[in-house]
Structures are given as C-alpha cells and as structure tokens.
Amino acid sequence: MANSSILDINDILAGYGDDIQTLIQDEAEKIAKEGVKTLKATSPKNKKSTANRGKYAKGWRVKKENKRGEVHCIIHNATDYQLTHLLEKPHLKRNGGYTAPIVHIKPVEEQCVSEYIKNVENGIRKGN
C-alpha cells in the first residue's frame, strides 16, 4: 500500500514538471513573438532611400532551437543583422566624431525578460 502511494506521488510530480516545462516553452514563444512585433514597430526606418525604407525593421524574426528538451527562442534580424550593433551603439564616423546611438533593442529585451519572468511565476503560482 505504501509503495503504491509513492508511485502515485511520483506520477503527480512528473506530470506537474511536464506542465511547468510546457508553460515555460509556451511563454518563451509568446514573449519572443511579442518582442519581434515591438521591434518591427520601433526599429528605425531609412528615410533617405525609398528602396530600403523599413527593410531593417521588417527583418526581425524568432529563431526557435530545441536543445536537449529545452526550447531557446532567439530574436534576431535576418535581413540586416550587421546594423543592429551599429545602430544600438555609438561608433566612429568617417569624417570624425561619433554617431548618436538609436537604442531600440535594449528596451524591448528588458521588457521581454521582465514579462517572461512575471508570466512564468504567475503560471507556477496558479498551478498551470
């Protein structure tokens, strides 16, 4: 009888662990998609070239990687990845001086991380 109840508890805990893992994966995907949507809206647009206007902003994607049972959602710019660092950080100009940074990635990253943590903690508290 005691052996049977231990197996029941193990099954309950294993099921709870699976539910938590699913919650974590779902939240990661949801928050990453929201982050991409925000980056597309807030990224700078090229005002000089009509051919490239909005190309950088439209290039944001979510890359989902499965590694040993873990899901990693990576937000990246698929079209103009070289510009992310140049726009976010100041750098030397050709004729001297520095460019003014256009900080647009860091705030979205901070928002995504805080919202992810909050949603996962709330989901665990609710028992989802």
Please characterize this protein's 3D structure.
- This protein is an alpha+beta fold and 128 residues long.
- It has one domain.
- The chain is 58% helix and 12% strand.
- The chain is built from four helices and two strands; from the N terminus they run ααββαα.
- The chain has helices at residues 2-42, 55-58, 81-88, 106-126; strands at residues 60-67, 70-77.
- Strands 1-2 form a two-stranded antiparallel ribbon.
- It is elongated, with a radius of gyration of 21 Å.
- The model has no long low-confidence stretch (mean pLDDT 87).
Number of DSSP-assigned strands: 2
Number of helices: 4
Tally of distinct domains: 1
Helix content: 55-70%
Shape: elongated
Blueprint of the fold:
Blueprint (H helix, E strand, L loop, with lengths): L1 H41 L12 H4 L1 E8 L2 E8 L3 H8 L17 H21 L2
Antiparallel strand pairs: 1-2
Task: Please sum up the structure shown.
The chain has helices at residues 2-42, 55-58, 81-88, 106-126; strands at residues 60-67, 70-77. By secondary structure, the chain is of the alpha+beta class.
Q: Descriptors for this entry?
A:
two-stranded antiparallel sheet; elongated; alpha+beta; 12% strand; 128 residues
